[in-house]
Amino acid sequence: MSRSTQPLCFVASTTDDAQAARQELIELYGNAAFDEAEVIVVLGGDGFMLQVLNETMNSGKRVYGMNRGSVGFLMNDYRVKDLPRRISVATGNDFHPLRMTTTDGNGDEFSALAMNEVSLFRQSHQAAKLRVDVDGKTRLEELICDGMMVATPAGSTAYNFSAHGPILPLESPLLALTPVSAFRPRRWRGALLPNNVTVDIHVLESEKRPVNAVADHTEVKSVQTVRIAQSEDRTAKILSDPDRSWSDRVLAEQFTN
Fold it and tell me: Rounded to two decimals, what is the model's pTM?
């Protein structure tokens, strides 16, 4: 095996397995600087992959992940042989993340992006009390719960599915609005929304029932309102092996025990 003619940059999480894999691949294929590489090869798990996707958003760089973590839903299988060829025939996927915009009690705003989901969680022993507006119209006057999330199709198999939300085919123009341990209305199990809507979640009785908001791995404490909408001006480019496409992975999740 020779060094790649296509500029590759290898980045790895801090685990021993990921670091060892990075060193092995650099010895075989070389290592371009991050800014000069056409493809970023990510070694680690899904959490590290999400971090790199945020860093490469709108850069035009393509990201190819190989699993050196645990679940690795976003990753391709780890194999050393013929990596440049695998990348050359990989399927490209362009994704628009969710943009989370929060306000706190002082009126200060904070914004973050999420490939998987935006989640809200109660901060104390008190259940959260939320109002949900969709495109300016109130759809839930009051939801008492441990939390709620808005998930993309790519993230629908992750925390959303663990909270009994629906798995969404990758090509579907939908978002999943899913509660976490809803107490009232007890029978409300969530909703499917068009991916072009804006969701505003208002925290009711926020001093008594404080709530945190999380966009993938970015957390904001004690929010008052959270606005969630797809960010059409931001794009992440992900590569997947033809025999392990994201669409196939999402579909397969619906038929597993």
Answer: 0.82
